[in-house]
Design a protein that fits this description.
Layout (H helix, E strand, L loop, with lengths): L2 H27 L7 H61 L6 H28 L16 H6 L3 E6 L2 E7 L13 H24 L6 H23 L8 H5 L11 H19 L20 H18 L11 H28 L4 H15 L8 H24 L9 H19 L23 H32 L6 H6 L2 H5 L14
Antiparallel strand pairs: 1-2
Helix pairs in contact: 1-2, 2-3, 2-5, 2-9, 3-5, 3-6, 5-6, 5-8, 6-8, 6-14, 8-13, 8-14, 9-11, 10-11, 10-12, 11-12, 11-13, 12-13, 13-14
Length: 524
């Protein structure tokens, strides 16, 4: 029971006790009506007035506590959103450190501007698409913690009815955050928090397509991913859409459940990155004519490792913040599970490369940690601590072999391993929820009674819902992204000229060097 509920119970009990006391006092002190009717009537009226005054005071206290609870949730959501925003610095350092010095200004600039341009796209159309219909669904609103006015304003959606089942496709209100009904702290806090989540998705492909992506088509992409790709799938999971309703409509657990974004954020970003990296092609010199690959080491491993630490810190905003409530004690479990999964992911990444290559590879220490963070993002609120360690450990294995598969089998050049870290482990994260959710949390999730349970705790249908959501993300997000990058390729082109790629993109694309030292770019 929450502190607010306990307070209300105490106050309500006090009200009834006071009322009973006043009534008993009236019964024992008044004389028969025939003896002193005036005095009796006066006493009754006085007691009624006391009860009314007490009731009014209780109502005022109740309203005040409810307002304070909402305000606390808004502060919590904003604070964790600020922490997630700082993750952009981590991504910038990781991607720049794992690429070559001659492209560092270009790589940093992409990570910088994806924040600004993606935000504008999300403000124009993305927020409306993703959350405009969250109050229109009959599911328990995921934004109710930020105030009743939030769901009341975000109440319009595009949906269709099939076989008596409602399938919500996207929200249709909240464009540009205009309108007096959106002028509330709860809605603006929700926008900020979800915008920085979108920014994580948007920046994942900048690592996979680094060192050969023209800056102008990148700018177009940044607006498009924030304005359409990310929010469309996000609306299906977090905005009351049809994936969230799989439980209500078809009895598949609680629908597709993704607590903080293993699929909505990371798998989505990985699918976009795969499509983009395939269309843009590998870096010059990455693959030989016989198909074998050549290593292209990054220029600053300490920079990448520092960025990884920043990202690990940012995840403490990412996952606990997704409660949208500072009143939810589950945040302690969520934060600790997040920390444990990153530890086991990093440890397994180190051990595995040590055995396979003879040395503990720092890059896979980093990517193992990030893979563990990505995987635990969906199930962090629903699993035991030992399961969090297991999920992270498995992700440390997945990230290595997925990276090798992407490079050696698919022949896709991914300079930072973004597809393996975010795409493959995003999928593993939501599937692991369908396996290990322990049934101790998530009551009423997506409008379904009871807590969320996975296969090993008695609900195989939850795993089915997780798989449907995963496959949907891969097919739809990858398909839209492939079409988008193909259209850009056929019109203005995605890729820089070979001569510029060889020389380095800092001067040709940005007009500025990241490092001013007079060193031959070929040696860097």
């Amino acid at each position: 029971m929450s502190s607010l509920s306990k307070t209300l119970l105490i106050l309500t009990t006090a009200l009834f006790v006071s009322a009973a006391s006043l009534t008993a006092q009236d019964a024992t002190t008044t004389t028969p009506e025939a003896s002193v009717p005036a005095a009796s009537h006066t006493a009754v009226m006085a007691n009624a007035a006391d009860i009314k005054a007490l009731s009014d005071n209780v109502q005022k206290i109740t309203d005040g506590l409810a307002t304070s609870g909402v305000n606390l949730n808004i502060v919590w959501t904003l604070l964790t959103g600020f922490i997630v925003m700082f993750m952009q610095a981590g991504f910038a350092l990781v991607e720049t450190g794992f690429t070559r010095a001659k492209n560092c200004c270009h790589t940093m600039s992409m990570n910088f501007m994806v924040y600004a341009l993606g935000m504008l796209g999300f403000w124009m159309t993305g927020f409306a698409i993703m959350f405009g219909g969250t109050g229109a669904t009959t599911s328990v609103s995921t934004v109710a913690t930020l105030g009743p006015d939030v769901g009341a304003a975000l109440n319009s959606a595009l949906s269709f009815n099939l076989g008596g089942k409602e399938f919500q496709l996207m929200g249709t209100t909240g464009w540009f955050l205009t309108g007096s009904q959106f002028w509330t702290g709860g809605i603006f806090a929700l926008f900020l928090f979800q915008m920085v989540f979108m920014d994580t998705t948007a920046t994942i492909p900048t690592g996979a397509m680094a060192e050969r992506w023209k800056f102008f088509p990148f700018c177009i992409y940044a607006v498009f991913v924030g304005g359409f790709i990310y929010p469309l799938y996000g609306s299906w999971v977090w905005g009351g859409g049809w994936l969230a309703a799989l439980g209500k409509n078809f009895g598949l657990g609680h629908g597709h459940v993704d607590f903080a974004g293993s699929s909505v954020v990371h798998l989505c970003g990985g699918a976009i990155a795969l499509a983009g990296a395939q269309i843009i092609g590998p870096r010059y010199g990455k693959f030989n004519k016989n198909g074998t690959s050549n290593p292209i080491p990054g220029h600053n491993v300490p920079m990448a490792m520092l960025g990884t630490f920043i990202l690990a810190f940012g995840w403490f905003g990412f996952n606990p913040g997704s409660t949208l409530s500072g009143n939810d004690p589950q945040i302690g479990i969520i934060a600790t599970n997040t920390m444990l999964a990153t530890a086991s992911g990093a440890a397994v990444g180190m051990i595995l490369t040590w055995f396979r290559f003879g040395k503990p590879d720092p890059s896979f220490m980093c990517n193992g940690l990030l893979a563990g963070a990505v995987a635990i993002t969906a199930p962090c609120a629903f699993v035991e601590s030992w399961v969090a360690v297991l999920i992270g450990a498995i992700s440390g294995v997945i990230v290595l072999y997925a990276a090798l598969f992407v490079e050696e089998v698919l022949k896709v050049d991914d300079p930072v391993g973004a597809i393996a870290v975010h795409g493959c482990n995003g999928a593993w994260g939501v599937i692991s929820l369908g396996l290990f959710a322990n049934g101790k949390y998530g009551a009423g999730w997506n409008g379904v009674e009871g807590n969320v349970k996975g296969l090993f705790y008695g609900d195989a249908s939850q795993l089915v819902a997780q798989c449907i959501g995963t496959i949907t993300c891969i097919v739809v997000v990858y398909g839209i992204s492939y079409a988008f990058f193909t259209l850009i390729e056929k019109t203005i082109g995605n890729r820089v000229e070979v001569v510029d790629e060889i020389a380095g993109l800092d001067i040709p694309e940005m007009g500025a060097l990241g490092y001013q030292a007079d060193i031959n770019p070929e040696s860097r």
